Amino acid sequence: MSKKLEEKQRRREAEERKKDAQKKAQRKRNLVTTAVALLVAGGVVAAIVAQRQAETKAITSYGVSEDEANCGDVEQHDIMGADHIDVGGAHEPYTTNPPTSGPHYNEPGLGPVQAGFYEEAAEAPPEGVIHNLEHGMIVFWYNPDAPNEVIEDLKLAVEDESIASVATPWTQIEGDANFVMTAWGQSQSCELVSRPVVNDFRREFQGIAGPEKIAPPFSD
What we know:
Helix content is about 40%, strand content about 15%. By secondary structure, it is α/β, with parallel strands linked by helices.
């Protein structure tokens, strides 16, 4: 082989070694980048999980024990029907206090209302939230003059299952109760908020009671 060919072959081999070295270096950089990305992603996920656990821990602490809540028995009521009415339209009086079924609005935002805690009855009137009951949601009707601890615990109860809960003021609550939990055709009155009692009620009726079972069943 001539010297010229030998030199050309050496240059080619040197170039191939250089390319191999570059590829190895690139693979190493990619591995490092991937490892860092995984560590960062893992850290973000861990932070999110920790935050949710902290939030859950905070939520699970609300209320009093079942014995302290002074709740009555769950009552089952006759169903009035599920007729749709125009917003502001007249209808026959509701047969339970608070309502657990009957005529209701069928207007987005007004019936059903958006799930959440309401401080003004006008924002979540009975004709609106009855449509939420029809969907299998749980509605808390609370005395606006109830002790602050009851109001704050009800806010946490709604937050605990925010996709399927509504709380609205109701000035006609009878007896010593500060609020009434309702599902379609069901009610339970309580003086104080107890998470075990609320969860038992949810487990029994959320996403189960009501002709339109749109709300997800409760799972703890």
